[in-house]
Amino acid sequence: MQSRIVLRPxxxxxxxxFLAAVGRSERLHWPWIRAPHTAAHxxxxxxxxxxxxxxxxxxxxxxNGALVGVINxxxxxxxxxxxxxxxxxxxxxxxxQGLMRxxxxxxxxxxxxxxxLHRLEANIQPGNRPSIALVQACGFKKEGFSPRYLKxxxxxxxxxxxxxxxx
Length: 167
Prior knowledge:
Aminopeptidase, 5 helices
C-alpha cells in the first residue's frame, strides 16, 4: 500500500501556509506546544534547521500537498551516542487519521538508515494522550519521567521520556 503522505523540508515559500495552519491549530496544540506562529518565528525556525544536528520535515498529504504536520529532529549528538530528540505536531483537520503515524514512521526510518542515528527520544507531557499513543504505535518505549523538564507557555512542565533504538 502506498503511503498517504510525503515528507519534505520546510522552506521560505511555505511560510504563509505554515502560519495559517498553525493559526487554525491553536486549540489542538494548547497547552502542549507553541509552534512558530509569526513570520519572525518561522524564519528563526528555518535558520535552526542546519542539516547537521537539526532537521525539519513537513508531513504533507500525497494527494494534494496539504500540510498535515511537522516533525523535527534536533540536537543530534554523534560519537558513541548517535542520538537525537524528536518534536512533532499535527495540524487541525489532519489529526486522528493516522497520517502523523505514517510521517513519524518514515522519519524514524530516515534517521536510522540515512542519518545513521542509533536512538531517538521524544519527551511528552503526561496528559498528552494522543502524542503518547502516537509514539507507542511507532514502537517507542517509556523510559522514565522528568519533572519540570521543559518550560512551555511560561510554566515548567513534567514530561515522560519515550525512546526508540535502531534494531
